[in-house]
Batch of 2 targets.
Target 1
Amino acid sequence: MADEIVEVALGEAFETTKKALMAVGWGEPEAAIQAEVMVAAETCGNNQGLVKMYQPQLMAPAPGSAAPVVERVTDTSSVLNGMQSPGMLALKAAVDIAITKSKGGVATVGVYNTSTSSGQLAWYGAQAAKAGRVVIITANSPEFVAAKPGAKASFGTNPLCFACPVEGREPFVFDMSTAAVALFGVLKCKATGTPLPEQSAYNAAGEWTTDVSDIHIGGGGGAIANFGGHKGVGLALMVELLCAALSGGAVLGQVESKKTAKSWGHHVIAIDPDAMVDGFAARAASIIQTVAASHPEGVRLPGDSSMAIAKINIEKGTIPVPKKVWDVLIETCAKAP
Amino acid sequence: MADEIVEVALGEAFETTKKALMAVGWGEPEAAIQAEVMVAAETCGNNQGLVKMYQPQLMAPAPGSAAPVVERVTDTSSVLNGMQSPGMLALKAAVDIAITKSKGGVATVGVYNTSTSSGQLAWYGAQAAKAGRVVIITANSPEFVAAKPGAKASFGTNPLCFACPVEGREPFVFDMSTAAVALFGVLKCKATGTPLPEQSAYNAAGEWTTDVSDIHIGGGGGAIANFGGHKGVGLALMVELLCAALSGGAVLGQVESKKTAKSWGHHVIAIDPDAMVDGFAARAASIIQTVAASHPEGVRLPGDSSMAIAKINIEKGTIPVPKKVWDVLIETCAKAP
């Protein structure tokens, strides 16, 4: 896919995305949050950016949806009913609550009943870390990932994100899928006709495949594999238990499928490091610098690559956007009521 | 190492271990906790069991050590100074605090300044889950694990444990090392003269090795590898940031080495699921059963193997103990003052 790329000024990318979201039915505050998340992803080279807007009607408010509602609350926890709002809005609200409630200690927030993925967890992790928090955020999703060759898919790609403030630099943000390849990686291979990475997926017969047409997300056989063998399965199951069992999302075995139940779950744990230790950010910086310098040629750590791409884009003030995506955004704005 | 094995009644194993610990200087309550942890490990086939008592003087109270002291406390968090007590005593105290403080919400507890490993985190995770909590426990340790081939060791084997209650069965306990092989795995290969697993360790030149004599824990080159490539490195770094930076343990770059600083760190997050959702244990059971049944031949999940071994031992009422370890325990008891 030799996509033509246009370089778009950061401010223009945000304003245009926001206007396009308003054109499909969002109010300005909701449009602004979603535009910020997608432009931020595009800025750091993440594949969950403006491509989400390629089919704008899919980004419109879901019929019968409403703003997330806090349903259960204690001094240290909240559970949000996402009311079928997009994951981006519900998780942003959840992280904001977790930041506030964890001041001087720890708080946990669950989210269920959202209609779409929240995009990269890294953005939400970075927000919490910029607010001074150490944070663990997890997300589950429909049945894409099988626990072993030939198994029925059970897990989503079930990402785990850890973020914290670091003295003298941007926050440390580690955002990993517990699957061997993220869903957007599969979609990208499909779009570009490239093979899947080795040992990242099974066909319907339960054999390893690199042929993306063997993978029928949501039924018909074939599935993404877990990363990292039995440890990866354990991590995916941990995420499932936090996001579905604990946060109120659709529970495997209690619904026909998570896909038809349309309830994506998230779980957030936020800790105020000042409650536990003096000078956390400096301590974190020392650890990260020491690990990074532990090899003569340096060690590349989680987030380094994203930070480097973001730095380049922010310095030149523009981001590269596939022209066909940008054209859709402009067209959508033009159709605004 | 064709060790002769003796079958010891569970009660006798506990009482003898407790007496041996009292003989090397512990009071009864501290001896009882450590005996319980080690006998439980032996019961489920874990390699951090009674073998710890093979050199009993190493298990004596460290000179100048004292009972753990709570140094910082908020409504939702505590930090324990381990006062150079063993990890088993400090982490048990931390988990007890986390269980109590998390009632109706969430709590976090850090531990630093302990003199030894706590043994398998699974035991502590199970205690919290039996008390009804969803729990994440992490631990760091001295420099055994290198972030890439040829790098200086930075991390401990930095395990991560997740546990939760499950309706109708024992708790779900997932306890993984973020290293390719656990420290006791290396020591076992050394003792038995067997090669290390493939791609689990580097020699001093930074090449993969399966020769355990290439690994000089604590200096001299060679190191254990992280599991799971860059994701494993990210997980190990997350554990390091939670247990050293956040919990007050020795910080890489701020000490000559964690080994000489002798400060092992732990971090506990406990959540009362009743604060967030109704029927958590039944929801967890449904998820676990569905994943386990997702393949016609079943899927083996974390903890299954340990539970099966423990069931056999508990039903027959005895545990297999290497005779040379048991002989040491008996001798140590005989020397009691």
Note: Chain B has three domains: 1-60+317-337, 65-179+226-292, 190-222.
Target 2
Amino acid sequence: MRLTIAGDSHGKYMIAVLEGIPAGLKIDEEIIRRELFRRRNCYGRGKRMSMEEDAFEIVSGVWGGITTGAPVTILVPNKAGNPVKDVRSVPRPGHIDYAAFVKYKLPDLNVYVERSSARWTVALTAAGALLKSLLREFNIDVLGFVTRLGNVEAKNIPDNFEELRRKRDESAVFCPDPEATEGMISEIDRAKEEGNTLGGKVKVIARGVPAGIGSYSDLFKKLDSKIGSLFFAIPAVKGVVIGSEEMWYGFDYLDEFELEDGRIKRRTNNLGGIEGGITNGEDVWVNVFVKPIPTTGKPLNSVDLRTMEPAKTPYVRSDVTAVPPASVVCEAALAVVISDALLEHLGDGNIDDLKRRFGNENLPRWDDGFWKEYDR
Amino acid sequence: MRLTIAGDSHGKYMIAVLEGIPAGLKIDEEIIRRELFRRRNCYGRGKRMSMEEDAFEIVSGVWGGITTGAPVTILVPNKAGNPVKDVRSVPRPGHIDYAAFVKYKLPDLNVYVERSSARWTVALTAAGALLKSLLREFNIDVLGFVTRLGNVEAKNIPDNFEELRRKRDESAVFCPDPEATEGMISEIDRAKEEGNTLGGKVKVIARGVPAGIGSYSDLFKKLDSKIGSLFFAIPAVKGVVIGSEEMWYGFDYLDEFELEDGRIKRRTNNLGGIEGGITNGEDVWVNVFVKPIPTTGKPLNSVDLRTMEPAKTPYVRSDVTAVPPASVVCEAALAVVISDALLEHLGDGNIDDLKRRFGNENLPRWDDGFWKEYDR
Amino acid sequence: MRLTIAGDSHGKYMIAVLEGIPAGLKIDEEIIRRELFRRRNCYGRGKRMSMEEDAFEIVSGVWGGITTGAPVTILVPNKAGNPVKDVRSVPRPGHIDYAAFVKYKLPDLNVYVERSSARWTVALTAAGALLKSLLREFNIDVLGFVTRLGNVEAKNIPDNFEELRRKRDESAVFCPDPEATEGMISEIDRAKEEGNTLGGKVKVIARGVPAGIGSYSDLFKKLDSKIGSLFFAIPAVKGVVIGSEEMWYGFDYLDEFELEDGRIKRRTNNLGGIEGGITNGEDVWVNVFVKPIPTTGKPLNSVDLRTMEPAKTPYVRSDVTAVPPASVVCEAALAVVISDALLEHLGDGNIDDLKRRFGNENLPRWDDGFWKEYDR
Amino acid sequence: MRLTIAGDSHGKYMIAVLEGIPAGLKIDEEIIRRELFRRRNCYGRGKRMSMEEDAFEIVSGVWGGITTGAPVTILVPNKAGNPVKDVRSVPRPGHIDYAAFVKYKLPDLNVYVERSSARWTVALTAAGALLKSLLREFNIDVLGFVTRLGNVEAKNIPDNFEELRRKRDESAVFCPDPEATEGMISEIDRAKEEGNTLGGKVKVIARGVPAGIGSYSDLFKKLDSKIGSLFFAIPAVKGVVIGSEEMWYGFDYLDEFELEDGRIKRRTNNLGGIEGGITNGEDVWVNVFVKPIPTTGKPLNSVDLRTMEPAKTPYVRSDVTAVPPASVVCEAALAVVISDALLEHLGDGNIDDLKRRFGNENLPRWDDGFWKEYDR
């Protein structure tokens, strides 16, 4: 599977193309609508958001609601037209402005924001949401939520997946801990008042991923590598930890095996469901560090690149934090990565064939006869 | 540039192939020798290490010490022959054993360790060390060191690069803080006694990387994405944070601009030298979370996959920690990533041409005439 | 550079995404308009063509007519709406119908034509035409024309490029030999009457390509491999020969060197401008074998896949031949391949930098000082 | 699956790395030995050949004769040591000499031949031969032979595959037509006397390839595109035609369907077994144009790049023709392409799982229930 994302934040469309989707898959557009809505509607988002309805259109690869095996293209129209703006020459710390100017050398910083703003994550969100229709066929569920905002950390995170989802959905900041939610809302209010912006952390979990997904052949097909590759493409993401961040002592960290009704279980899941680049049947979970938005409400020190004189960053209306929407985007990203690795494992063709392949291949027993001709 | 790594830990060779290296580059084999030696010689490494001399041979792409533009192949012989071993059927928590058995279904866990052991990082180390001969031509320097081992954290890290390197090299665990080094050695001794293993953290810095390296075109050519992709392929790596982990408030985190002698400077470098996927001229720095080695000195709970009865993991002689060598490997990984992005920026051909291209393209001034035909 | 093409022939848009285009390039939309018109307007095209105006829109990566370095997306709307059609279960020989049904297993052959019809080549044509704005900056010109249709072969092909273009453009079938053009028109008329379809051959030339483009590092970066990879993705293409098809004797075939005013010249160009995967400074030229359209005007023998009874292929209004439009498509394909290889050579960033790099690197002299430190 | 090939013709080894091979596959080294022998031993090969024994070693990814899922590395030692040679500054027409000098700018043409000589095809031959152990599991057989040498064309080519193989193997030039073989041997003798070299044509057939292999999703996953990509990477290959070269009239060319015992058959196979980028169940067959060797026995006109004076190409002992060994190399290339596409279709893991997947998925019937929820 290959995902291509294009689009400028004030262009006509954001575009996602998914190649390698099996044929015969029924796409539930409601999921896409819901995830785009979630990405847009959370506490702390600014005015631009409400100008965009995040309608979307699937313009290829789907016929009567069913995939055809051809590339699937999703277009998300940008509602906010491109206002005539003055040339901007004062770069904002934390944004691509300066770095892109040095590389691309076009003398208007407005240009670079078109590609590098978080607007393109709407296309990633749509692509991930579309792939949930695929994951559902294999009983794989993906869920993302906020675990930290500014200095407020979530403490009580339900273990039960449905409760976790419900509590998250009840939170204006997608944090399943109601008490922390209140603290986070206060953080947002205070930051807004100060003109400050907030970073934080997000956790994403994939439940139901079978053991054996990923690879140790090509280094870049290791599931960890795929996670690193896509998550670090998300603008606000500056850090990714797979599984527990507390990894100081082997005895505390390594997930021992036990048997439960004759089946293998783990007591803990510090490793995040991946061992050696391949899933081990436990939840795949990822912690993501999300940086504060670079567009602050009070000016920061900068330099006017035109005059090479000190200058202050301009005041631009913006969100206070990208952490809650980042939880939606990261959920989508994990859906993309798991789908990609799952399809690499199962091959291509018709979804019913892939499901049959999947169904026929339960966990191996030691004496299954594999490698039968091998003589040591 | 493309890096391919192959080799089994008890096979004849570990193999690294680098495609896309410019012609005419003088390779300093001494660097490779030194880095392989560093990877092998640090406190806490077990006996296997001393059995390997990490000789290496460059068998293609270099003629008389100069690259030819053809793929460069490095072979690192494995000295430790493959001992006859019994079939192993008890998976070790934290290792690929169980996950790979489910995927590949060959009934001997010894098989999977061949590819998934950290032994292949010797090839990555060699490849990164070779690329230092490239980076040197552009005055780019890469340095990695240990910042945490078990519960001991480094506090005093010199800002001066040469002092940093010197202090790191004086430390048996590659930690530039002498006091922390002592603590870390104690941690290792204690862990060894207990049969425990240690995780920790590593920091890698690339100094001298020019602004403008990376891209915002293809998502996966963003420098962050490249870092995520390669670092997460390293067996022991479970987490990567680019720049500071303290990213909770915009005012504290965003690196403001200032002018110094008419040149743009930053007061801080929390962003780790990358904005929007492109370097901004500051040091690129990365924190890496390294998990404890899964082969503990005391048995862990497991299951015998042959009998499906509870079992204990076998005692295998092993290192206590992979953190110090991981600092060498991560240094190599950053050298690979920076080289790759630099070559994408500069194109291919002869190194002298690339250097001329590089030299001719200083930072743009606003009125440089780029985009001159554009009429707003 | 990476080209992604999506779109169903009756969907809303055909989509081309180009990643890795340098910033600051002025796009001449007139070229795109012209090439789309040419693809559509030639003798022998059927009715569907006139229903499509091949309007197009560049919806990303271009700001005020100038590229920004972000992915460039071109949308070409499909004018012909999707008529309600009966399920089709009789596969046409030569079309994807049967092969795709076996793979994707959706019981309506209409589905597969959506992706596999030649309609997607409109997106390739647009992408190639857009890249002509890039090639123009480097004085590279690409030209395609018909050399054979049915049994009629072109004999008199002008050597002068401008004359060649003019004569081609005067021909209703894009054949620069006026006499052959007449014969080809007769072939088309006769075939139409008989319900037959016509194959043929196309020649594409890239003039002005500097020596040194391509690579011998990665096998798949050899220019020949890139040509094979893209040309064979074009639906009607079944054969590709680089340079002369008459390659039986070394003495006749190999292009000897001579000096003209102190510069190296070749007497002949049988090798098609590529030696060892790298351009040699002569014209790059490619012969393409184009198969007859699988939708014939008289029924062919087939099988109804629903009943597994013998059946005849349905009558569907169609073109008689794809050879003239294929000459437009192949011209675009060569523009894509040359652009891709040129950008790999020159790197990325701003077009003016790339032009300076290009300008600074004339042909090497033997004593240029490259490899100066090498001591044999 | 990904194939990487490295190695210099006078370096220690030629290297092939295959990533993505399933685990549990028994490798028959005898096939590799046989194909390397065939590549080396045919009429018209020069002296260098006999100096090489083409021993080979599989140094990774295989354990006790069985693949492990890890990358498979094959090393083929180069027996001919690197003789001390004078600097060479006179480029040979048809070889990479001049083009590579312009690109890489190293002042010794001997350098470029290291990578660009046909010597690396020994690694491709070994890789393809190894993959025959995979194809055999799916009853797929690949066969290549010479159809033209100089002006002599094969006429009588047996349709029966075993007879075809036998006759080919009896021919000193791998041409299954005994009469043509004689003519070809005369061509070689005459060419040798004249110092001339010979081009020709090769045909490669894959029998037993199931319908449904390939894809119409990503353009570059079409089977035709994969064939073009790999075949045009082979040094001597200048042309590739899939199926019949006679493609002028639809009625003559398109392969009509018929029923035989209730199964779908074709009367002809002009399309070469691929429709729309996907196999249709017929033999996949490819014609390959092979150029004459650029090292002629009598000097050609050239230029001394050092002095920029006219010069003659040096006399170097060489083969008269690469066509017979090219038939071996192209057979290997088709084995690689078909394996790659087959594995993309079937996914990864253990070979026995892949065989079960394969076995469970016979040709679909129209009413198989795929796409069952679709409501037009």
Note: Chain B touches chain C at residues 2, 19-21, 24, 26, 64-66, 69-71, 212, 215-218, 221, 343-350, 352-353, 356-357, 360-361, 364, 369-371, 373-376 (CB under 8 Å).
